[in-house]
Specification:
4 helices; alpha+beta; 113 residues
């Protein structure tokens, strides 16, 4: 689009004439994108806000790591697994978290111990 090298000041001036503004957000320590399956975590991310025609978009640059979501385990499920296996509620909850909330699999896991 632009042949050769362009002066950054001139580029910024041209963008302003077209109604575009870019600004780096300073001091960003972490950005987290939440999804049902887990979270994408960007440590030391670089974030640039671009405004054009009244709409602001954000560009994110950095290395992401994925943290799998920990399922919410209802207390009723914990009580059921504990009563069926004779395990403590703490052990039942740990087994349910490990099996991602699968009651039958948690019972089988604790029964084999």
């Amino acid at each position: 689009m632009f042949p050769g090298k362009m002066n950054p000041k001139k580029m910024k001036q041209m963008m302003k004439q077209m109604g575009m503004e870019m600004e780096e957000i300073e001091g960003v320590e972490k950005v987290v994108i939440y999804t049902p399956a887990g979270n994408y975590v960007f440590d030391d991310a670089q974030v640039v806000a671009t405004t054009m025609q009244g709409v602001t978009t954000y560009q994110l640059t950095g290395e992401a790591r994925f943290e799998e979501a920990v399922p919410e385990i209802p207390d009723d499920d914990v009580a059921l697994v504990a009563s069926q296996t004779g395990a403590t509620e703490e052990a039942a909850r740990a087994a349910l978290v490990e099996t991602r909330g699968d009651i039958a699999e948690a019972i089988l896991k604790l029964a084999q111990q």
